[in-house]
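Would you mind writing out a protein's amino acid sequence and the numbers that encode its backbone to help me picture the idea?
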Amino acid sequence: MRARPVTTLLGGLLVGLLALGGCSAGDTSTSGTAPTSPSAADPSTPTDPVAALRSRCASGIPDGTPVRPVRLGGGSGPSLAAADFGPTRGSGTVLVLLHQTGPWGLCGWGRFAARAADAGIASVAVDMCGYAESTCDPDLPAVDQVRVAVAHARDDLGADRVVLVGASMGGSRTVLAVADGARVDAWVDVSGVSSWDGIRLLDRARALARADRPGLVVYARSDGDQQYDAAERLARAAGARFVDGGSGHGYELMTDYRARLLPAGRAVLRFVEARED
């Protein structure tokens, strides 16, 4: 299955697209969890980088959350817009967060990243190529984009341990990146669609197992029995833990609209904090 990113919003489609806030492939997110934000063309948009990011993400980043916009990579490689959440240096574990589809990019991770910051865990959430404010080839393999974010986590945030976490499209690309050799210490796939970029995730399970990195797969039955069963099979074949996510998809499984952790979000934080590697 191949899903193309949304890069422009035209006239009367704007409201409808913003209500989706999730993946075009397998995402059942509701508009109740999507942040609202002024148009990027709004002349009142702040010019201060932090204020501009908060304006862009609006309710997606809870008030008081420590957040710093950054630009990763560039030169001859991908240029990724990103945001650091939580501690600034020497934070031990750092999460690299890959988003769902839709125009919001990294904003969708703001609520969970805020709760991780409360636990002393730093995160870097990225706009993947073809989404939001990143400028790079949308067809660039996930592993090449992840490498840029992992280098930032280790070199700039002082991580001694990096955990790659993705939701829906990001979950699928997390699996593909780890199978392709991303140098992370553990990984989490939340609602990853069973096939992405024309690749069936189960076909990469042996590569995941060979990578010998602790993994966690989170899935909800509300996405359908076929996808749920595929996620369970992927976890078994990869030697990863499987958690029933309850009801919802992607970000919806992690926090509620008030940024309170839900059971699946708590399970992910426990997995991240366990340091089982």
